[in-house]
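User: Second chain of the day. Same drill as before.
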Amino acid sequence: MKGLRNVGRSIEDTYTLHNGVEMPIIGLGVYKVEEGDQMKDVLLSALEAGYRHIDTASFYGNEKGVGEAIKASGLPRESLFITTKVWNDDLGFEETLRAFDISLENLGLDYLDLYLIHWPIEGKYTEAWRAFEKLYDEGKVKAIGVSNFHQQHLEDIFAMCRVKPMVNQLEYHPYLAQTEMRAYCEYHDIKLEAWAPLNRGGVFEEPVIRELAEKYDKTPAQIILRWDVQNGVSTIPKSVNRSRIAENIDIFDFELSDEDMKRIDGLDRNQRIGKNPDNFSFDD
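Assistant: Same format as last time:
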């Protein structure tokens, strides 16, 4: 992978997107984190631990809580990288522009660092992408991308876009290594980002992962997240537990050997915990 050895040595390391924007290599996902005290506690814990990338979505229903926690942190806006996503019901040109304004207001921000189309809803995502390009041209968002897009969806975007997606956020973990999509995105200079990188804990008891955790004196979660980083994949683990939030970002003092990386690669089963965008009916 390009530039593999140039990242993953420091909590402050970033990936450079194809438009020059620097994106932290690890962030915190806040899916199902509740508004109010829980969100404030989770985000302040994360920011204290060193996270600077926060990933939310309009569908999560907690953008206001993210914004309130950011404000409470007292950190300068330019030190943070904030992502949100437009939901399926709001795809379309005018609809997406309206949804963006609502998200920005909920977050209490003047701009977004990254805006993503949450799912590739047939017949709608190309119009939404036109809206994304407008927002990008106007400087309201520093980078634009997609989530859960496979090759055919990206090709639809390529056929009509002026600005290519900078990020594709996919389900990615040792049981779903997305080898072909990772290579396709790298070829097109699109950064792959992992959601559910820990398979909701479903890989922790895997013998290879446990053996490597003992070998490197790390937790199973740290082994998996380190594998992400060394594969050149941005990663956004989620937790509401203060100690695990800190644990998940403590992955910069060791490096997996090439042999051990291949052993984890070998766990791939093409096994999902989420929906497959190729055959999931979004009307269900």
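The chain has one domain: 14-265.

User: Great, on to the next one.
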